[in-house]
TrEMBL record:
<keyword id="KW-0256">Endoplasmic reticulum</keyword>
<feature type="region of interest" description="Disordered">
    <location>
        <begin position="1"/>
        <end position="24"/>
    </location>
</feature>
<dbReference type="GO" id="GO:0005789">
    <property type="term" value="C:endoplasmic reticulum membrane"/>
</dbReference>
<dbReference type="InterPro" id="IPR014710">
    <property type="entry name" value="RmlC-like_jellyroll"/>
</dbReference>
<keyword id="KW-0456">Lyase</keyword>
<keyword id="KW-1133">Transmembrane helix</keyword>
<protein>
    <recommendedName>
        <fullName>Vitamin K-dependent gamma-carboxylase</fullName>
        <ecNumber>4.1.1.90</ecNumber>
    </recommendedName>
</protein>
<dbReference type="InterPro" id="IPR053935">
    <property type="entry name" value="VKGC_lumenal_dom"/>
</dbReference>
<dbReference type="InterPro" id="IPR007782">
    <property type="entry name" value="VKG_COase"/>
</dbReference>
<keyword id="KW-0812">Transmembrane</keyword>
<feature type="transmembrane region" description="Helical">
    <location>
        <begin position="175"/>
        <end position="192"/>
    </location>
</feature>
<dbReference type="GO" id="GO:0019842">
    <property type="term" value="F:vitamin binding"/>
</dbReference>
<feature type="domain" description="HTTM-like">
    <location>
        <begin position="35"/>
        <end position="293"/>
    </location>
</feature>
<keyword id="KW-0472">Membrane</keyword>
<feature type="compositionally biased region" description="Polar residues">
    <location>
        <begin position="8"/>
        <end position="19"/>
    </location>
</feature>
<dbReference type="GO" id="GO:0008488">
    <property type="term" value="F:gamma-glutamyl carboxylase activity"/>
</dbReference>
<feature type="transmembrane region" description="Helical">
    <location>
        <begin position="94"/>
        <end position="127"/>
    </location>
</feature>
Length: 718
């Protein structure tokens, strides 16, 4: 048969039912529609692209290049989804990464295909489930695609499996293989669009100041930065997500969708450090085109590329597909668009278990993907100001966070001693998201308590965490009066110690922006923080010595400011302002029945003084002798001589602008170092396991060599 993909699979219409079987039931019609034979070429392109991108992703965002930094410390807290899931010994973590890489390579080559998919998916999900703080939507998508590729017949075209087993080489794949993958990508776009109907996104508070990126320079010819943020970033992003997936489904609108979605992903690749995600989404766009499009493109490729791909158009029948009797031709007959049948194995015309399993898997997977983004009413324990753990809801970029401070205090039940702990001392540099989620706060508290038991301490732990979401006031996320060690947490119950987001204060945001802009325009050395607090609570803060000019201005409600060292209290009403002394503690008590709102205005007086002296010195500099100019204008006893010198040297240092070639060279050098580090440490891990030698000794040796050479450095993933 010469199947050129003109009808079968390129149009999404079911085949004519076998007239001999009468009128088919709806379930049978669906079964035949999803199991109709289609060209495997497009699916092969997806397989090759995904496997290749995952091989690049593993040393980078999956963390193989810095596995020793991420997984090597034994004295830090972890945040697995399941408490019984533990980090393997470091040398075995490297072997897990190796297995994942071998799986991705096997997917790319189509070699031992389903075993490769299993190797990749099992190790990938193990790494993902080990650390909730690293979850994001695209990492979740990669895991889903690994599972989907394991289910579909991705090795039926341009695969080593096909060269080994001729019966599957260039064989049909059932249409549900395409349907499930297309639906998954469609849902990524469409649900992301639905999530962007959030009021914060529509009003432009989710991603402010993104317009400053150079990719928006053409829009600046017509629009201001504020207009770009609102209309291009927010409204444009909503439109692309909401309608991009829909337009991909139809032949007439698909070219428009591919153009805008490609532009969208390319822009994202330059603005955000999100690894392979833009390229992975670019690789899925051709999936929506005709299933035989690669066969039309290959003849136009250069000759040295054409030899890598077979261009044969004779597609073999597959037992995974369902054929109508009209499509089957007796062996030896030469009828186009019909499947040859021989005496050994006739193409199936009636549904079997394998067909039902494929369709059932498709329906169940799609149902789960429709359910999970809106399942937060069940998994209440993972909710906070937003719904659920960030990663499986497709609410990309809808919420932006800033953290004012995280304070962890303890009380030793044995000695009665009270004090503070450094909250960053028990986590690695990657795990910063724990403080935004109640479930992880509970995990962290129990981990810290277990560590302190080694010091003969039995503690109560209290967290005072202040954050702002989408430009609102800084406010508490959790009740600081609750001992987290006494909290009973369940994934199906609301977080009992969470403080509500003060949505009633959201209208203040536009006014806060105006006030901040006015203050910053007045002085480049001014910083402002807007705070809201609940009735009956107080904020305790320490003002550093450098912030010699710090004031509190009350915007609404009533507060009492307690200057702890001076033992004085001052009541403030809306509009009142008070200076707070540097180098001392103070407390702001909310005494009104409604939440209080106030702002801190900071002026770094030390920095101001340094800058004034820099200006004074520079005015008298007639030569490049900085030291001589400083001696003329500043006393030797001046405490800021070194600071002034460093600032002037910084200003007068000629900074060479990077050329495009410099950027390319730096990029390649960085990636080579990352790959070198990955495989160097992997070899050490293999030697440790095989030879039963100490991996710690290997690490100590490498760290010593690296410290001397300063050439191989760990890379931190953001």
């Amino acid at each position: 048969m010469k199947d050129k993909g003109k009808q079968r699979g390129s149009t999404n219409t079911p085949k004519q039912m076998d007239t001999n079987r009468g009128v088919a039931s709806p379930s049978t019609s669906l079964l035949r529609y999803l199991c109709q034979p289609t060209d495997p070429a497009n699916l092969a392109v997806l397989r090759i692209a995904f496997g290749t991108l995952m091989m690049i992703d593993i040393p980078q965002e999956r963390g193989m290049s810095h596995a020793d930094v991420r997984w090597g410390r034994k004295d830090v807290c972890r945040f697995p989804l399941f408490s019984d899931l533990k980090v393997a010994p470091l040398e075995w973590m490297y072997i897990i990464y190796l297995i994942m890489f071998i799986g991705a390579l096997g997917i790319t080559l189509g070699l031992f295909y389903r075993i490769s998919c299993l190797l990749f998916s099992s190790t990938y999900w193990y790494i993902i489930l080990l650390d909730k703080t690293a979850w994001n939507n695209h990492s979740y998508l990669y895991g889903l695609m690994g599972i989907l590729l394991m289910a579909v017949d991705g090795n039926r075209c341009w695969s080593l499996d096909g060269l080994i087993n001729k019966s599957i080489n260039n064989a049909h794949v059932p249409f549900w293989n395409y349907f499930i993958c297309r639906t998954q990508i469609f849902l990524v776009y469409f649900i992301a669009g639905l999530k962007k109907l959030d009021q914060d996104w529509i009003t432009g508070y989710s991603m402010q100041k993104l317009s400053r990126n150079w990719v928006f320079d053409p829009f600046r010819l017509l629009l201001t930065d504020e207009q770009i943020d609102l209309f291009i970033v927010h409204m444009g992003g909503l439109t692309i997500d909401m309608f991009g997936g829909i337009f991909l489904l139809f032949d007439k609108t698909r070219p428009i969708a591919i153009f805008f979605l490609s532009s969208f992903h390319i822009m994202n690749s330059t603005m955000f450090s999100i690894g392979m995600f833009p390229y992975a989404m670019l690789a899925t766009l051709p999936l929506f085109c005709a299933v035989d499009w690669p066969r039309k493109v290959i003849p136009r490729l250069p000759k040295f590329l054409r030899v890598l791909f077979s261009t044969e158009t004779e597609i073999e029948p597959s037992s995974h597909c369902l054929y109508s009797k009209e499509e089957i031709k007796p062996e030896g007959e030469n009828l186009d668009n019909k499947v040859p049948v021989n005496s050994q194995s006739a193409p199936p015309t009636s549904p079997s278990l394998v067909h039902r399993l494929g369709v059932t898997f498709t329906i169940i997977h799609i149902a789960i993907q429709l359910f999970l983004p809106y399942s937060h009413g069940i998994t209440k324990g993972y909710n906070n100001w937003t719904n659920g753990l960030y990663g499986y809801s497709w609410d990309m970029m809808v919420h932006s966070w800033t953290t004012q401070h995280v304070r962890l205090s303890y009380k030793d039940k044995i000695s009665g001693k009270e004090g503070f702990l450094d909250p960053a001392a028990f986590v690695d540099s990657v795990g910063k998201r724990w403080s935004s989620h109640g479930d992880m706060v509970v995990q962290y508290a129990h981990c810290v308590a277990d560590i302190l038991k080694n010091y003969n301490m039995s503690v109560e732990l209290y967290f005072d965490i202040w954050k702002s979401m989408n430009k609102r006031f800084q406010q508490r996320m959790f009740d600081p009066r609750v001992n987290i060690m006494d909290v009973e947490w369940s994934p199906f119950k609301e977080v009992s110690f969470a403080m509500p987001l003060l949505l009633d204060l959201s209208p203040w945001r536009s006014k806060l922006q105006e006030m901040e802009k006015e203050l910053i325009d007045t002085s480049n050395y001014t910083d402002v923080v807007f705070v809201a607090d609940f009735p009956g609570l107080h904020l305790e803060a320490f003002i550093q010595e450098d912030l010699g000019n710090t004031s509190i201005t009350l915007l609404s409600g009533s507060v009492v400011v307690e200057l702890v060292d001076l033992k004085k209290n001052y009541s403030l009403n809306p509009g009142d302002k008070i200076q707070v002394p540097p180098g001392q503690f103070h407390k702001v008590h909310t005494v009104s029945e409604e939440p209080s709102c106030y702002m801190y205005i900071y002026i770094n007086t030390t920095y101001v003084e340094i800058m004034e002296k820099v200006e004074t010195v520079e005015k008298t500099m007639s030569e490049k002798n900085i030291s001589a100019a400083i001696k003329r204008k500043l006393s030797r006893q001046d405490p800021y001589v070194d600071d002034v010198r460093q600032e002037i040297e910084r200003r007068h240092t000629e900074v060479k602008e990077k050329t495009f070639l410099d950027g390319v060279k730096e990029f390649i050098t960085k990636k080579v170092k990352m790959l070198t580090r990955s495989w160097t440490f992997l070899v050490g891990a293999l030697q440790s396991v095989v030879l039963r030698s100490s991996f710690d000794d290997f690490l100590d040796k490498k760290y010593s060599e690296n410290e001397k050479a300063n050439s191989i450095l760990p890379e931190t993933v953001t």
